[in-house]
Amino acid sequence: MSEPLTWLLAPVVTYLVGAIPFAFVIGSIFGVDLRKVGTGNVGAGNLRRVVGLPAGAAAALLDGLKALIPVLVMREMGIGPAVVAISGLAAVAGHNWSIFLRGRSGRGLAPSAGVLAGVDPWLILWPGGWAIAGWKLGGGIAGFFGWASLPVIAALLERPDHVVLACLGLGLLMIVRRMQGNPSPQPGVKAALYRAVFDRDPGQVVTTAEEPVGN
Questions:
Q1: C-alpha–C-alpha distance, residues 64 and 190, integer Å
Q2: How many domains are there within the chain?
Q3: Contact at 8 Å (CB) between 71 and 61?
Q4: Dihedral of the alpha carbons of 169, 191, 132, 170, in degrees to the nearest 10
Q5: S-S: 19 plus which of 50, 78, 98, 168, CB 3.0-4.6 Å?
Q6: Cα(first)–Cα(last) distance of the chain, in Å?
Q7: Strand, coil or helix: what is 98?
Q8: Residue 53 lies inside a defined structural domain of this protein
């Protein structure tokens, strides 16, 4: 396959794979439409709250694998690291804005972890550590610091350019998706910025323990 064709097709394919809404599919098996219950977020976190831990864990695992496996396959095929990084980001974008759900779906942290595990496994220790800290600090703000600061950490550790690019893209995708919020978010720039950091609207009461890793 020619290089220009690879640059074109690889991200399209990984976007479509990433767009498979495993949490929605599992929820449907249990007779639940995640868009209409809980937070309205089509992700493993909402699935766990509504259906239970095993279902949420299964969705999180599948969401991670749908990003990890394409990255590993492309690396095994000898596709260039820049294409692999961009294709990994496309998988996360597919998860966040699934064409099969006609719009927003999950937060993208499980597929982001899958991409990171594929391009530079050691770096996953950074957001993973913040995820653990999230049990004390709150999952929203811990997730923000873990992923938003990741490109800085990658640069400080002198990781290759394509890895820094992947980390930057993962952080930006997380921030943009959080700023959108769940269905019917509070309007305004201030509310959107608050959601980016805390993953909830200003003044929203948290009725369940925040998760250190969202999806």
A1: 31
A2: 1
A3: no
A4: -10
A5: 98
A6: 34
A7: strand
A8: yes
Listed residue (79, 86, 81) closest to 18, CA to CA:
86
pTM of the model: 0.90
Express each pLDDT in 170-193 by its tens digit: 999 999 999 888 777 788 889 889
Does some domain include residue 93? Answer: yes
Q: Which residues pair with 104 in a beta bridge?
A: 97
Residues 215 and 200: their CA atoms lie apart, in Å, by: 14
Residue 206 resides in a domain: no
Q: Which two tokens stand for residue 113?
A: 């972890």
205 part of a folded domain: no
Q: What angle do CA 151, 152, 153 make, to 5 degrees?
A: 90
Give, as one character, the DSSP assignment of residue 104: E
The one-character DSSP state at 210 is P
Q: Which domain holds residue 44?
A: 3-198
Q: Express each pLDDT in 101-138 by its tens digit.
A: 987 788 899 999 999 999 999 999 999 998 888 777 77
Rg of the chain taking only CA atoms, in angstroms: 17
Instruction: Return all residues near 36 (Cβ < 8 A) that are at least 6 apart.
Output: none
> How far lies 206's CA from each of 4, 127, 147, in Å?
48, 22, 22
Give the closest residue to 209 by CA, choosing from 112, 124, 140, 115.
140
